[in-house]
Every structure is written in C-alpha cells, then in structure tokens.
Amino acid sequence: MLAFLRRLAGHLVRGIVMIWVVTTFTFVLVRLMPGDPVQTQYEKLLAQGVSAEQARAQVQVTYGFVPHGSWLSQYGDYLWKLLHFDLGKSVSAQGVSVRTEVVGALKWTIGLVLAGVLLSFVIGVLLGVVAAMKRNGHVGSVLSLVGSLLHGIPQYVMALVLVTFLTVKLKLFSTGPVDGLLDPGFNGPYIASIISHAVLPAAAFALSSFGGYLLTMKSSVISVLGDDFILASELRGIKPSIIFRYVARNALLPLFTVLALSLGFMIGGAVFIEHAFNYPGMGAMLIDSIGSRDYSEMSGAFLLITGAVILANIAADLLYSVVDPRVRHGGAA
Amino acid sequence: MSTTVDLPVSGATVAPARRTGFWRNLWKVLKRKPSRMVGAVIVVLFVLTGLVGPWLYPDNLPRDSNQILAGPSLSHLLGTDFEGTDVLALLITGTRYVLVAAAFAALITVLIGTGFGLYAGYRRGAPDSVLMRITDFVLTIPGFPLLLVLSTVWKFSSALQMGLVLGLTGWGGLARSVRSATLSLRERGFVEAARGLGMPTRHIVTRELLPNIAPYVAMNLLIGVTTFIYSQVGLFYLGVLPFTSNNWGVMIQLAVTNGVTQTGAGLGYLMAPLVAILLLTLGVVLLVDALDEVFNPRLRED
C-alpha cells in the first residue's frame, strides 16, 4: 500500500510538472503570436475611447495577464488565474468565459468518445480472440489484415466516406449533435435525437480504432496460450470453456491500459470526427478558435486536451500496476 | 501520434544485418505471397508518382468551365473539381508535396529518435534520465492538437517546413524503442567483447549497435511515413493552414468547403485523395508484413 502511494505521488508530481510545462508553452505561444493579440486588443479598446485603466482590466480578464509590466509578472498573473481554473474570456463570443465554453463542448465530446471507444473495444476484443484462435486459417489472416488496414486508415477518411454515402447519398442519418427544432431537456424525442445523431460518428470512431484492439488482443491471446499454466490445465483435462476463461482474463490485462490511454487521447483525437459530422465538441472548438484566432479559447481547449491525456497516462500506469501483480512487484520499469 | 513497431526485446534472433543479403531476402520474401508483391508495387508506384508527377502536367492545370464538378468521363477519368480542373491531374501533381513532407519528417524522426535512443541507452545514468524525460514529454503532448496550435504561429509554407515540424513532434516513439533495444543489446556478448577489446565508443555504436537497430528503425520509418502523410493531409483538410501548392489535403478541404459532402456532386473530387490514402495504407501494410519476415527470421514459414 505504501509502495502504491509512493508510486501515485511520483506520477502526480510528474503530471503536475508536465501540465506546468504545457501552460508555460501556451503562455509563450500567445505572446509570440504574430501581431501580438494581447497588445492588439489593448490598443483596440483604447481606440474605442476606453480609459487605459479599464482597457488593461479587460485584457486581463480575456487573457489572464496584462500586456504591460515584465514578462515575469505577466507570467505570474497567468499562472495565478489558471490555478483558480480561470481560463480567461472568449474573444469571438464576447463576454463568455472560456470555462463555460469548454464545459459545454466537453459534454458532447465525452458522450461521443465513450460510445466510440467502448464500441471499438468490445468489437476489437471479440474479433481479436477469434483471430487468435483461428490464426492458422483464412479467417485469422483476413481478420488480421482487416485489422491492420482499418488501424492504418486515418479517422477523417472513414468519417468523410460515411458522411458522404450514408448521410448525403442515402439520407439515412443527419449531421450535427441533435435536431435543432426540439426542446432541449430530459424528454424522449430530444434524447432519441441525440442518440440517432451520435450513431454514425460513434461508428466512425469504432471503425477507425477497433483494429488496434484487435491486433493487441490477438497477440496477447497468442502469448497467453503459450503459457505453461494453460498447458498444465489442458493436461489435467479441464474443460476448454473454462480454459478459455483463464485465457481471456489474462489476455485482457494489457488492453485495459490501452483503453485508459485512448480515452485520454480521444478527447483531442475527436477533432476529425467532430469536424466531419459537425459536432460541437472539444476538437471542433479548438479548430474554430484557431480559425477565428481566439487565442484565449485556443489555449484553454489545448490545456484541457493535454490535461486529459496526462491524467489518462497516470491512470493507465496505476491501473496496470493494480491489475498486473507482476508489474507491481517488479518495481518501476 | 505515431505508431511504432514493438521491438522483440528478448531479441535472441537479432543477427548482425548484412547489406547484400537484405535485398535478396526481401525479394524472396516478397515472392512468397502475392499480397506482398501488390504492396511493394503500390508503394513503388506512389514514390514514382511523387518523383515525376509534377513534370507530367503544366504548372497551371487547364480549367474547363463547361465541366464543373463533373463525374468521371473519358476526358476526365476521375471527374473535375469546382473550377473544372481534371481531378486525376490534381491528384498526381499533389503527390509530391505529400511525399516530400512525409519523407523529410521521417528523416528528422530517424536522426533525432535514433540519436537520442542510442545515446540514452548506451550511456545510461543522468543523460539517460534527462533524455527520457524529454521523450516522455514529446510522447505525452497530444500531437495533432499541438500541430493545430502551432499552425497559428508557423505557416508551413513549404513541404520541407511541414516535414520539419511533423518530424520535431513525432520522434518520441522511435527514441523509446531504440533505447530499449540498445539497453538489451549492450549487455550481449558481442558488444561486451568489443568493449573488452578496448574498441572506442564510436566504433561500438556505429559498427555493433547501429546495424542491429537499423531494421526496426526501417520498419518504424515506413509506418511513420504513413502517419506523417495522414497528419499533414489532416491539417489541410481542417482548413487551418493557408496553402500555396496543391496537395491531397487541400483537395479534400476544397471538396468539403464546396459542398461535395452536402450535395454529393463531384464525388470523384472528394474520393480521389481519400482512395489514394486508402491505397497507400494498403500498400504499406502489405509491405510491412514482408519486412517483418525479413527482419524477424522466427516468423519465416519454411
């Protein structure tokens, strides 16, 4: 237990350092932007007849720091704001705080990502077991080939093909998160609309990522099949169905870390799917903020995406040491 | 963001690679399965297209304003775009940018990844921990969002600049695999023997370690090239980059902004680059299967 806590502390410290480095990076980035957006907003406010005092205050609210004073004090201001989860105010949507926007976008992304990841995990694991069992036959080699092919195809290709054929040509689905005319809230038609709009993007997710799970599961099952304890249980005449349960349980272990990692990456990786399906999540928000040069929103979205990946990394490491005793006792690799 | 091939770290089968044997082996392995031949042919065709493609057409492709977003026909095999330009011509001339950027990115990845991995694995100690912290950092930061954010300060105006940025953000995985391979190699007999004989470090690294790591670097490179292709095409597709020259990503982006995904008109314009990416993926996957067997003799079926 003490070892576990020490591990946890180490991971957390490393994660915090990483987040600090990324925040510093976004700070420097915003300062390096061509045309200096901070100074530009300040001067624009002055030109509108706003007093220097007020202009400074407003810029401070938007970016978390003022354009005057030393870099060090600007940096201090920025970090202090972030420490209070204050990401500044959006420039393109005047007056809305970035935190509100991020939370609004995150809601859509998380639903989509969860559905997509779980779907691809289940399909990938099941097909991976089949591919491992039939590895010497045609079924196995076809599955492996399809797995590596789909694994290699970029998400946007999958998304665009599905959008074009299923929503435009066949009109089976529609894009966007939900039908615009419905009453938002917890009512039947609204929820049904959300679900029917999420089916295709989630399928695009699953199709472009189940190959990875398939290949990992296949090699994992094959390596477990070679373990001595399987041979021993076969020799003792234990029923194949029970042996299969042993195999499955042991082979699944490495996949959980992949699952945890992909949940983190998908928050940012949803960029293409959200773009293709016109879905208002984190990825779409990041692209929009770049298109409109809304730097405070951009750094907010980027910080959140990176934070999610770092947290997922820590979770994956810890999860691995919990589910696999060999790692726990072997010490840190 | 980059996929890397796992190294069989136990590596009992790693034998010093011999240059002459490599091509003969590759040919033998390719001949064994027709699918691998197909893969090699596809990859070679793409490389040739990238090399000679732009010379086949005039600098400014002709426009046919009577045929806008037309479907495939004899005069335009893949149809036309929203200005009436032949899609096949766009596809072929656009190949070079995509491949040059990916190849340059791969070169940078190999230089940094192999260099860092070898040095960290061979020296160990403090330089190792420092380099691996940097590697962890590069690996953890989500690559594509980072590229998106960088596109606001960096214009990626040429294929080489694009390649440089892709390479600088994508070497983490390779550095990790090279390091772990080096760690296991340095304890092995032939390296210890070289050390015992008093060979200089430079000799051990370039003559003993590098030849053994080269196969994995090569495989990672091939897969890395496809990842780099997808990333840059994706950046253009999302429309965050200004473009000066034609390439696959620009085609996809223009097709989408001109409403091909909404109306379905001019489907060839959208599908051509998508199918090109699918074909290239297929080629690389099939070729990697062959390389796998060349480099891991254990997989050989005979």
Question: How does this model look, in words?
Answer:
The complex is a heterodimer of chains A (333) and B (302). Chain A is mostly helical and 333 residues long. Chain A folds into two domains: 37-76, no CATH class; 98-328, Orthogonal Bundle (MetI-like fold), CATH 1.10.3720. Chain A has 14 helices and no strands. The two termini of chain A are 18 Å apart. The model of chain A has no long low-confidence stretch (mean pLDDT 78). With 302 residues, chain B is an all-alpha fold. Chain B has one domain (25-64, 73-299): MetI-like fold, CATH 1.10.3720. Chain B has helices spanning 19-32, 34-56, 87-123, 125-140, 143-150, 159-169, 172-185, 189-196, 201-237, 248-257, 260-263, 267-295. Chain B is elongated, with a radius of gyration of 22 Å. The model of chain B is unreliable at 8-14 (pLDDT under 50). Classes of the chains: A mainly alpha (333), B mainly alpha (302). The A-B interface holds A 14, 18, 21-22, 26, 29, 32-34, 145, 148-149, 151-154, 156-157, 160-161, 163-164, 168-169, 265, 268-269, 271-272, 275-276, 283, 286-287, 290-291, 293, 295, 298-299, 301-302, 305-306, 309-310, 313 and B 3, 35, 136-137, 140-142, 144-146, 148-149, 151-153, 226, 230, 233-234, 237-240, 252, 256, 260-264, 267, 270-271, 274, 277-278, 281-282, 284-285, 288. Chain A: Keywords: Membrane, Transmembrane, Transmembrane helix, Transport. Chain A: It is found in: Cell membrane; Membrane. Chain A: The chain crosses the membrane at residues 12-33, 108-130, 142-168, 188-215, 251-273, 301-320. Chain A: It holds the Pfam family BPD_transp_1.
What is the terminal-to-terminal distance of chain A?
18 Å
CATH superfamily of chain B: MetI-like
Secondary structure class of chain A reads: mainly alpha
Radius of gyration of chain A, in Å, reads: 25 Å
> How would you state the average pLDDT of chain B, rounded?
79
What form of chain A results from the Cα inertia axes? globular
Low-confidence parts of chain B: 8-14
Estimated share of beta-strand residues of chain B: under 5%
